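Appendix B. Raw example, untouched.
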Amino acid sequence: MTLQARDRRALAALAVAAPVIFLIHWVWFPDSGAAVEPATESIPQAERRLEKLRRSSASLPAQEKVVADISRELAQRERGLIQADTPAQAQAQLLQIFRRVASRQTPPIELKTVEMGQVRPLGEDYGEITVPVTFDCRIEQLLNLLADLTAQPEIVATSEIRITATDARQKLLSVRLTVSGVAPRHLVPEKKTL
């Protein structure tokens, strides 16, 4: 999920408003069950309160910097999301990424079967797109394929792998691999309840 400029401004406003509200709540209303203070307060009490306000306002720029850093890091990480309008397009994009990686192996790995997997929730903000594929390869090709797959700029990994030896002398394997990618949550179909 990509944060829009409006959302970033709202987060920045929240970062500014939250400490101020917290400060107001804890300084002027420290305990709602306590007796009301008299209107006249001593000078040392007023100085202590002023010092608390100065400390909390001094920490506000640091809190704003933390929010900005976290927002930048989130935007950096979300660049690897698979962006598509529909779940089928996201699965096709994931399959295209896998085919690109498989074709770069030496010799290129040819897919035998491709299935369209599920789209399921991954936390509260993301979805997981899966595509099961079947192919034959040598063991070193499989190792190189898995290493190259995790080095992609998109957030792609394997979620399931089944390996069967087909020719022990040539070290040929039959592999069924489920490739998973992370996508925005809006691609996950809503479960209908009765």
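End of appendix B.
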